[in-house]
Amino acid sequence: MATGPVLSAAGTLPARTVHLIESAEAARHPARPIEDAMTVTPSFAAVFDGVTSLDPPDGTLITPGFRAVQGALDAMNFAVPGSKPAELVQLLHAGVARARESSEPSGCVAAVLDAAAGRVVRVGDVSVLVDGVLYPARTVYEDLLAEQRAEHLRALIELGRTVPDLQARDLGRAAIEQLLHLGRRLWNRIPDDPGVGVLDGTSTPDSLIDVIDVSRAVEVVLATDGYPDPRPTLDASEAALADRLRTDPLMIADPPKTKGLTPGARSFDDRLYLRVGLRPANR
């Protein structure tokens, strides 16, 4: 699939509105609520993905990532069309801060389409496709950890461990656990690679805020990273995911992920897909 650089919208834009074409969401495991969320209004389309909790489950279904997503989602009620990217991001941070209830780092990533500004503002690893062209997110730190996990699991398979055994007990993820914790300390603190932009209730450096020009776009897709190979349509994205899970349940092929498909789960991660169109406001 073609990819494009991140660009900033410029110039005078015609008034346009957002309309929903198709969407879908599914939790990773049927026993857990989804930590991804979306909203669509005539002015905005937004997708949020809660950061996976690293602490063992304590019986509650309300994780820090879930709370962060709900806080950012609530903040969208106060978003002003045409706001500067940094102002919009800070509004979302404030929403996350209001929703925080524990000492564990609470955060989410997001992509927000602002029809009035003709741009998508992104913090983190939400995938964005503009008229079929993928604008990949910067995921340097997570990519490094995913490759370490994959190498660890490949070595174990070479030594005789089976894929089902490693699905039941992901020794690769265990091997990178401390580095995953360290990554939380890097949130918004390094302004370039391997900087990690996250909505955590603080602030994000401008250099970690992606601004993608959609001033002339017809369709925009926003998808969380539960779709490792997002496509311009939902059916194609679901087919690509199903094929990947069938051939690579550990998610260690190219590109690898920091977690795989576990017993009883529907997929390796929560997923949300949102495809919208942009049309003149008078239509």
Task: Give the gist of this structure.
This protein is an alpha+beta fold and 283 residues long. The chain is 28% helix and 22% strand. The two termini are 32 Å apart.
Structure description:
With 283 residues, this protein is α+β, with helices and mostly antiparallel strands. The protein is 28% helix and 22% strand. It has seven helices and ten strands. It has helices at residues 64-75, 85-99, 140-158, 163-168, 171-175, 177-185, 234-247; strands spanning 16-26, 36-40, 44-50, 108-114, 119-123, 127-130, 133-135, 210-213, 219-223, 271-280. The chain has a five-stranded antiparallel sheet with strand order 1-10-9-6-7, with no helix packed on it. A five-stranded antiparallel sheet has the order 2-3-4-5-8, with helices on one face. A hairpin with a 4-residue loop joins strand 4 (108-114) and strand 5 (119-123). The longest helix is centred in the middle third of the chain and has 19 residues, at 140-158.
Strand order of the largest sheet: 1-10-9-6-7
Helices and strands: which structural class? alpha+beta
Number of helices: 7
The overall strand count is 10
Q: State the assembly state of the protein chains.
A: single chain
Unreliable residue stretches: 1-11
Beta strand %: 15-25%
- Apparent shape: globular
- Rg result: 18 Å
Secondary-structure element string: EEEHHEEEEHHHHEEHE
- End-to-end gap: 32 Å
- Note the main sheet: 5 strands, antiparallel
Mean pLDDT: 92
Proportion of residues in helical segments = 25-40%
